[in-house]
Write a structure and sequence with these properties.
five-stranded mixed β-sheet, 5 strands, 163 residues, alpha+beta
Length: 163
């Protein structure tokens, strides 16, 4: 009886169509970088919309032409917008410039975080699994429910009076 190696058996089975040939590595998408070396993305949260540009730099974050610490006064909001950079271990490596409109401070911080995350994946596609695992690429779709007629608020009824 002749001895055959495991590789020979795999080749024969692949030729016969019994098992699939070696799976090819999924190619990473090309980085989406403009002529000035920036990546652009739009982030959204509640009714806030943030337009975000990132490029290699010293780690400055500019929001509506102000430093992020000045624009977002609360430490929690400053932490929120830095989360994707910290998770991807890119703190201090990218300059972030963004304009944000709508909603309030919390919604705007969430929109900036979402935009930074998307821009990072456009600049470095290999960061996508890390940011996806952290939940930074998912758009938080919760918005305020509209007020209905015949109601005091969206769901609250007017106070009932028996007499």
């Amino acid at each position: 009886m002749s001895t055959t190696s495991l590789e020979d058996l795999k080749d024969v089975a692949a030729e016969a169509g019994v098992i699939a040939a070696e799976p090819e590595q999924a190619a990473l998408p090309e980085p989406k970088i403009d002529d000035q070396g920036r990546a652009y993305a739009t982030g959204k949260r509640k009714t806030a919309v943030a337009r975000v540009w990132i490029k290699p730099g010293a780690g400055r974050i500019i929001v509506n032409k102000k430093d992020h610490a000045e624009y977002f006064g609360r430490a929690v909001l400053q932490m929120i917008i830095k989360q994707p950079l910290v998770a991807a271990e890119r703190s201090g490596q990218y300059d972030v410039y963004c304009t944000v409109t709508g909603s309030g401070p919390s919604g705007q911080a969430g929109a900036v975080r979402h935009g930074i995350s998307k821009a990072l994946t456009y600049f470095e596609p290999k960061l996508r699994p890390v940011l996806k695992k952290g939940g930074f690429l998912t758009r938080d779709s919760r918005v305020v429910e509209r007020k209905k007629y015949g109601r005091a608020k969206a769901r609250r009824s007017f106070q009932f009076s028996k007499r």
